Fold:
Amino acid sequence: MRHERSVPSGSLPLSYRRTASFLPMSIIQRRYRVVRTLADTLYGAVYVCHDDAQPDDTLVVLKHISLSRAINTINTINTPHPCSQQAPDDPRHEKSVTNALHRAGGHRHVVRYRDDFTTGSELYFVQDYCAGGDLYSLVSLGEGKGTRRLSCSNATAVLAQVASGVAFLHAHDVAHRDLSLENVFLKDGKHDAKIADIWSLGVMLFILLTGSHLVSNAMTGLKTFQAMISCGGVTFVLESWGVDTSEWGSVTDLLAGMLTVDPAKRWSIEQVLDHDALPATSDDPMDMNLL
Structure:
């Protein structure tokens, strides 16, 4: 399931650049009281709000989407492939997928959907607010050690939770398509978005362990990906970079399985979750949620 990206307002196309529709203390649907704007997006904005219908004044995230702007963008932007990373997001599809996952019971490691509603040509999604920030920020802090990476045990614990959330999506025939550290609170010929999710999980684990980026997309047209093919895969990359993997144990094998160049040989989400390098998600104190 791919979500509309949050982008700085200064990087939006001029035709879409705008100020937030709702100021702090604005009341939406006679229930959601705006605290602050979290991000501007291509089709609207994302807000942190108080849910006045809850006795404890719960904080939630309210995603505001202009359907007219979204439909106009979808109808006018020419994309090279329907599953391309450049394809515009369709909020109508997001609504149907979100509701289907909610009916399926949701998942502990997927951000909880609370509500959605439409007023005129404006669509709103309400989700849980994750006050702890995103995974990118955690990695940047390097667990307070200035390393810009996580320990092997913490990295695999994080991946186990994210992979568990991805498995739930895949079990309901949904691919995330935009897995990245910022979304954990991501070729030629036929495209399989679920297989692409596995590659993204591998890249995520690589960054958690090393603090460095690898290749975000397994696309044969990318020079960096071609270089990875020619040099022999992620194991060779780790060796050539001088990365100390002596304490990783079977984690190197897990990485190699997720970052297998040939999509037909790349591991499934079930193989990832069954690997002995991953701990049981219920045993870990860090609680991650996939957006």
About this structure: The first strand starts at residue 6 and ends at 7. The mean pLDDT is 77. The chain has two domains: 6-128, 135-283. The radius of gyration is 20 Å.
